[in-house]
Amino acid sequence: MFELADRFSGALLGTHVGDALGMPVEGYSPHYIRSSFGEVREMLEARLGAGTYTDDTEMMIAVAESLVRKRGFDGEDMAQSFLENFDPRRGYGAGTVSALKLIRSGVRWDLAGSRVFEGGSYGNGSAMRIAPVGCLYHHDLQKLKEVAFASSSITHAHSHGKEGAALQACAVALAVRSGPGRGLDVKEYLAAIKQFLDPGSVYRAKLQLVEELLQGKAPFDEVVQELGHDSRALYSVPTAIYSFLRHHEDFEEALVYAVGLGGDTDTIAAMAGAIAGGYHGKKAIPVRWLQALERGPKGANYIEELALKLCRLHREIVSP
């Protein structure tokens, strides 16, 4: 029980850590980050203070709260959880804000997302928050996919957005299943993710690129060119997976690398942190990073409490 709880804590706190580490350099190029900051290994000052989180972690908290409260997925409750947690200072994307406004005005939770943009948003906003789903359903990937798609549709109804959320949830789930004690076979890990994806998924080609880039230890510019580093799910979720796999033996190195790629640094590092945290557990997160995290009513301590509640719920689901 302790080992699994540690991994759940690692995945949720890993989201917070990556989010906080990447936020201060969001939008910068890899070259600018290296020339101005070197490697980002410490929590830099940010708009809400060093160690604070963005909408990435705030929405992850909302997902976890709803799953715990309803003992599983409830779309209406999760949508309300997003509304209750919404703090515009955290830097929400325009699509998410629009979807939440529609829900607040009375539009059903399963319809609002499809009314944002033409065909729905294909951003990474539903993938960045999905770690609790990856943890809770790591034993049942089919259920995980169903919940990931449904939870994504609240704000990100485009197929790329929903598939990106499911892919990230699967990456977290497989990391939780693996754990450093059993070691990680990168090829087997990628093969399992590909098998999880639908045969026609556009993410299959991206994962093939991930495998090829890992073989040659590609430089930053090539990784960004091939995988991307922006806020589109297709151009950031595979990048986060690559960041984890390139440094899967070390939590800190995986996140430092993710931030160094530039672009949507807070979200890519948050997703890489969720995967790496699920694999290594909280025990592998540098103490100095944990100590620097935001506290308060819904800070790091609260996030860890949610992780432990999720772990207990998982046990009850698996062994009722």
What does this structure look like?
The chain has 320 residues and is mostly helical. It has a single domain (2-318), classed as Orthogonal Bundle (ADP-ribosylglycohydrolase fold), CATH 1.10.4080. Helix content is 64%, strand content 0%. It is built from 17 helices and no strands. The chain is globular. The model has no long low-confidence stretch (mean pLDDT 96).
Q: Which key phrases capture this entry?
A:
320 residues, mainly alpha, ADP-ribosylglycohydrolase fold, 0% strand
Q: Tally the beta strands.
A: 0
Number of domains: 1
Helical proportion, percent range: 55-70%
Low-confidence stretches: none
Please summarize the sheet with the most strands: none
Highest CATH level, the class: Mainly Alpha
CATH superfamily: ADP-ribosylation/Crystallin J1
CATH architecture: Orthogonal Bundle
Instruction: Give the averaged pLDDT, no decimals.
Output: 96
Instruction: Report the β-strand fraction as a percent range.
Output: under 5%
What is the overall silhouette?
globular
Named CATH topology: ADP-ribosylglycohydrolase fold
- What is the alpha-carbon Rg in Å? 17 Å
The total count of helices amounts to 17
Q: How far apart lie the N and C ends?
A: 15 Å
